[in-house]
């Protein structure tokens, strides 16, 4: 395409037609977000579209996304790194569940290895993005150290995750302001917090609470209590130790062995997911027996580990080497399954009349869903509300040209889905250029809008509360939600790009 663009990375050229002669930066592709999705997309661009210029804009000071933002004790992945890691740079360590620090280290190593680190522009916060049908390009308003900058791009990839980095989900806890101690949301954990010897209540039952409880006990908390309104399914995931090798790892070259390991970690969890969906009663029994086996002797299973919903109605929680179950053997870790009556000055009163005393309350009650970050999106200066749009192949918003929204899985590793999105979008760009199109805009018919579905097929509280901020999926291809990797992987490589898509060819932009 003949378009005004620079071949540089972080440097662009001044553009005289901008208002007030402000300099603009021009790229074929702008990636927003230097997390795992952004790095993955960058690699796919370099591999598939080597002649295209691109940059990665990151609002924070460092790469890593969630893994550099969250600092709460024990922060770790809730998916295995063999599939959460990059297919093009496999996770080589034996442990499938990794700490936040080791994930950031791995991401830095990957970015450096493939020279993606040369494309990062940190502390570049994208405030607004407007698509111009006349110009057939995106105009992005960016703030950098208090200065305003303008970027132009033919394509935009939003690797901004699915939650609000600035504002957590507000916990609806009666009387929380009455508490005289310290109240913390895990998303903004103070790194200098001294909790040794303190009495701590963790409100919540999801992956964050399951991670924090054993970490606090190991870190010297006096007493730590996980207070949950309803239980969660929690499953042990054994960690391999250095030097432990499977038979195929002993006889095959490392590269081949890593590919087999990755395939195993794709297939086995998916088969277990299908087992849970098809045989929920049997799955409940298996999960409960596992918990009973790993808990201290005579520790009550009911009501603390007997959820009232079916497995995978909400996301399963995984704990490495049963650390969550084992921490109750310390005598300092506790679990309480009751509703909160109110928070008082010294702790929490339960609906049973019991009072839990505390020095610190941790509100691990979920994330505030936000797709596309806090960027003010618009098309021809008409505001785009993400929640009003359907997703084409779980990747692009209806009526929004040349923009992809990276969304992964909730029943598998996020990266599996984000990689499908990146490969699909790169294939779409090649298709556009081969056919001399300048833009692709998803369009959905009235019949296809019937029976809308949630982007995340879960019944978790934070998902239900955040539904008003999420795009919608449909009941038939190409509007289906992400359901399993095998279909999405096929779709990324072979699906009909014309289905549900409207193309535009503007002569003077070709």
UniProtKB/TrEMBL annotation:
**Which InterPro entries is this protein grouped with?**
FAD-binding_MO (IPR051820), FAD/NAD-bd_sf (IPR036188)
GO MF assignments: monooxygenase activity
User: Which keywords belong to this entry?
Assistant: FAD, Flavoprotein, Monooxygenase, NADP, Oxidoreductase
Name the domain of life.
Eukaryota
Query: Which Pfam families has this protein been placed in?
Result: Pyr_redox_3
Q: Which Gene3D superfamilies match?
A: FAD/NAD(P)-binding domain
- Cofactor(s), by name: FAD
PANTHER family assigned = MONOOXYGENASE, PUTATIVE (AFU_ORTHOLOGUE AFUA_8G02570)-RELATED
Name under which the protein is recorded: FAD dependent oxidoreductase
What organism is the protein native to? Amniculicola lignicola CBS 123094
